[in-house]
Amino acid sequence: MALALSTTVKLLEDKLLSLTISCMSVRERHKLNPPPKLRNPTWFTQKNRVSFTDPLTTENQEFLKEVVQDQCNNISSEKPKDLDVVWRPGLQRTGVIARKIGIYPMWLKNGKKISTTLLQVLDNQVIKYYTPESYNPPRPRAGRVSNRKGCLLLGAEQGDPSEFTREYCGIFKDSGVIPKKTLARFFVSPDAALPPGTSISALHFCVGNYVDVRGLTIDRGFQGVMKRHGFKGMPASHGVTKTHRRGGNIGGGGEKGRVWPGTKMPGHMGNRYRILRALKIWRINTKYNVLYVSGQNIPGATNSIVYIYDTKVVTKRHTEPVPFPTYWGGEEVPENIYDKELHEFGEPSIVFKEQ
Amino acid sequence: MLKTGAHRPCFALIRHFKALRRLSTAAPEPSEQTRQKYEAARKSVTDLRRIYPEFLPDPKIEFRNPIREKLERSDMIARRANIEIPEFYVGSILAVTLSDPHTPGKFNRFVGICIKREGCGLRSTFILRNVIDHQGIEILYELYDPTIKSIEVLRLEKRLDGELLYLRDALPEYSTFDPNMEVEILPEGAPVPVNDIKVKLKPRPWVDRWERKHLKGVQDLELPQRFYDKAKEVDTPWEKYDLMKQYMRTIPEEEQHEIFSELQTHLHKSGVTQKVKRKRTFVKPTKLA
């Protein structure tokens, strides 16, 4: 009797357990977007340490500065001997970290005026390379990926190592690079991997190439529809009251009697990463590492950091060989390299010939 | 509340000035020669910033970047090596020859009075105005546009106002100039003459509320009193005492020194001397309109 009772209790328990499991499972979960895993890349650590004055003598402070300076000078980027892959279409090179330093006009040889944005390529250096197998992305790509990319961690802008935290400096430990202020990761083909410490200059790109530029747009806060989406607003007069800058109607009735997803409404504007694609490089200044890129609407304010990639736009991808995996230097280059169509400011005035 | 907010930065600025003065006094007493040299350099900077106003960058702090400004200046200097951009002011009469693929002969010459000059760096512009066949014509030129073949100053002079946009509402004879005008030469070393002509405006409607602009070069506007009352109401006479505003709107003199010394070395190198034709001959005015 006791045995029978115990078996029934166990059965009931099992049932209950199965019931709770069925309650916990959500229907069609596999079809929905999985929630993002809350895990940052390994290099997302606290960067700046709490500032306090070190009890150091001035001589010691100077000595520390000297040590940093010496290490700066020691870094040399020479082409490793085993890197002799020739560029071919389909290979993805690394991008660079740059700063948007301003906009000014240039003229073409046919007299047309173009606006160019100046992007100063900072002192980029390779910090780490993650092979396709070792790189564990925070959000893995769904499905099978045929040509998996490695991940290259780049740093830019020399910083004072004493201002950074121990963990942040640890990122640079094995690379031989002095801690940098800005970090960025770029996905590259395994053939385009670069050894740590390699520096990348503006000549990584060629004049005439097209690039995509990614930047953080200017934060404009909570904005109305006129500024955020370019709505027309409503008239200033003719009996219009209290609705001069409002959006107006946001939906119909009947079967569509609700607000449809994606309806343009007031909200937060800016402060998000945006990519402007297929911008032509018109000119390169090799002395200051400046790229003159077409367009005056590159995301971000002047003096903000942007990321430059080889373009993904199919019709604008480069067809001719580019420096691969990067430009190694060594040759004499002129200070300014211009596009063929561009009028140089040092040339005489444009004169049209009579036909 | 507003008052204190407005005054605090001023105090900071005054303190800054005081500190500067103290620094200059604390330095060892300079000899007479070096002082003279410094004064000469200072004077040349003041001269240069009037002759080459577009070399001063936009004082808006969010648009500034030293490397961009340097590159921009070097491009401007490179352009100036190919074209003589003369000294001119708002109120001067200029002739601009422009390459134009659609004009027969491929060149287009326009004579007019400079009514506005604005912008800085490679994007600096000026507007010329003339009345041709009873039709007012204005053309906006870019100073560093390579399609400009030549810029000639036919009459170098200044007016009483910084902008002459009110000529749009003035009688046409005030902006009518002979397209075949000859160059008027001023005597060597003479200062730039100021033309204190008072322009007669047409009755309203106008393109702007000129009674609010503190214009000096216009005759009595002949408006009802209520216009002047309103102008007085919206006027901001305290702004000229706002030191902070003035500071934010201008480039500090130390920076100007750096910019213009760079320009001066170039001018010396290229052998460009101030060959300003300043000899004014009497020309009998002809009635055109």
Overview of this protein structure:
The complex is a heterodimer of chains A (355) and B (289). In chain A, 14% of the residues lie in helices and 25% in strands. Chain A has 355 residues and is α+β, with helices and mostly antiparallel strands. Chain A has a domain at 91-136 and 148-220 and 268-338: Beta Barrel (Elongation Factor Tu (Ef-tu), domain 3), CATH 2.40.30. A six-stranded antiparallel β-barrel of chain A has the order 1-2-11-10-7-12. In chain A, strands 5-4-3-6 form a four-stranded antiparallel β-sheet, with no helix packed on it. In chain A, strands 8-9 form a two-stranded antiparallel sheet. The mean pLDDT of chain A is 88. In chain B, strand 3 (125-132) and strand 4 (135-142) form a beta hairpin. The longest helix of chain B has 25 residues, at 2-26. In chain B, 18% of the residues are buried. Chain B has a single domain, classed as SH3 type barrels (Roll), CATH 2.30.30. Mean pLDDT of chain B is 84; it is low at 1-27 and 274-280. A five-stranded antiparallel β-sheet of chain B has the order 4-3-2-1-5, with no helix packed on it. Chain B is α+β, with helices and mostly antiparallel strands. The N and C termini of chain B lie far apart (57 Å). Chain B has six helices and five strands, in the order αααβββββααα. Chain B has helices spanning 2-26, 32-51, 66-80, 225-234, 243-249, 253-270; strands at residues 93-99, 107-118, 125-132, 135-142, 148-155. Classes of the chains: A alpha+beta (355), B alpha+beta (289). Chains A and B meet through strand 1 and strand 2 of A and helix 3 of B. Chain A: Pfam families: Ribosomal_L3. Chain A: One of its GO terms (biological process) is translation. Chain A: This is Large ribosomal subunit protein uL3m.
What would you say about this model in short?
The complex is a heterodimer of chains A (355) and B (289). Chain A has 355 residues and is α+β, with helices and mostly antiparallel strands.
